[in-house]
């Protein structure tokens, strides 16, 4: 019988049995068998299921993606010893029945490359606390003085035009900035019916991207409906959950 070990860091949180023919849904909402209550995880993020004679992991168009062997994968065969990354959690896959099934050459090559690749924090968007810690490390060097050029890049700013929030201006200095009513949100929405997580703004490679958190959340950029992640630029207007905000870049 195969097993999946849900881990956070080095700690095993729970182990799930996975007999041949079974499947496991993975996501932030409580209707998933593997329930991961973290804002980096989409409501219905991914699933592991039986496909003819082996197990497969498949991403469900999640915001931050499903990662295997150092790459974001839409769908991939699982082999004994594989580790799937979902948000900040990992899923260790064990398949004793097919332990000796040889891996394809491409898989072996990917594993070799992964050993030399950046760790997960470089490929997956982090939460607000981790982002602030990394930001502080980049701003100050070991001697406490400001670091040179890397921090000269413009930082995104949201200015509230309409709607209820806890502030009028927000500096998007984290890798992942959540818009919602959740206490973990970077942009805190107010109001009785405000969603816990309405949208997410990611910052990577010097660019900003916005996406709705779930399919039923309405998000508009410059008056146009947005259903998937898309880049935003200086001067764009965002509308979500009754709040209208303008996006700008500040030095």
Explain how this protein is built.
This protein is mostly beta strands and 251 residues long. The protein is 9% helix and 42% strand. It is built from two helices and 22 strands. The chain has helices spanning 105-115, 128-139, and strands at residues 2-8, 11-18, 23-27, 34-35, 46-51, 54-59, 66-68, 71-72, 75-77, 83-86, 89-95, 155-162, 169-172, 176-180, 187-188, 199-204, 207-212, 219-221, 224-226, 230-232, 237-240, 243-250. The strands form four sheets. A six-stranded antiparallel beta sheet has the order 2-1-11-10-7-8, with no helix packed on it. The chain starts with a strand and ends with a strand. Residues 117-132, 134-143 and 146-151 have low confidence and may be disordered.
| pLDDT < 50 runs, ≥5 residues | 117-132, 134-143, 146-151
| Mean of pLDDT | 82
Strand order of the largest sheet: 2-1-11-10-7-8
Number of strands: 22
Number of helices: 2
Order of helices and strands: EEEEEEEEEEEHHEEEEEEEEEEE
The largest β sheet comes out as: 6 strands, antiparallel
What coarse outline follows from CA principal-axis ratios? elongated
Give the C-alpha Rg: 20 Å
Entry keywords:
mainly beta; six-stranded antiparallel sheet; 251 residues
């Amino acid at each position: 019988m195969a097993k999946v070990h849900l881990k956070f860091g080095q700690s095993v949180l729970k182990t799930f049995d996975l007999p041949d023919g079974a499947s496991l849904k993975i996501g932030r909402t409580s209707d998933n068998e593997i329930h991961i209550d973290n804002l980096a995880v989409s409501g219905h993020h991914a699933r592991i299921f039986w496909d003819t004679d082996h197990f497969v992991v498949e991403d469900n168009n999640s915001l931050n993606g499903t990662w295997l062997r150092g790459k974001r994968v839409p769908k991939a065969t699982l082999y004994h010893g594989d580790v799937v990354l979902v948000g900040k959690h990992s899923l260790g896959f064990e398949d004793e029945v097919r332990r000796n099934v040889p891996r394809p050459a491409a898989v072996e090559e990917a594993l070799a490359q992964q050993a030399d690749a950046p760790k997960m924090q470089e490929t997956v968007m982090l939460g607000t606390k981790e982002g602030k810690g990394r930001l502080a490390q980049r701003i100050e060097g070991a001697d406490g003085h400001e670091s040179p050029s890397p921090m000269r890049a413009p930082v995104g700013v949201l200015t509230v035009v309409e709607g209820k929030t806890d502030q009028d201006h927000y500096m998007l200095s984290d890798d992942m900035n959540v818009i919602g009513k959740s206490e973990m949100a970077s942009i805190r929405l107010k109001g009785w019916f405000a969603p816990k997580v309405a949208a997410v703004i990611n910052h990577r490679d010097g660019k900003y991207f916005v996406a709705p958190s779930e399919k039923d959340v309405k998000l508009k950029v410059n008056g146009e409906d947005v259903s998937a992640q898309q880049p935003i630029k200086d001067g764009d207007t965002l509308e979500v959950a009754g709040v209208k905000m303008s996006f700008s870049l500040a030095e």
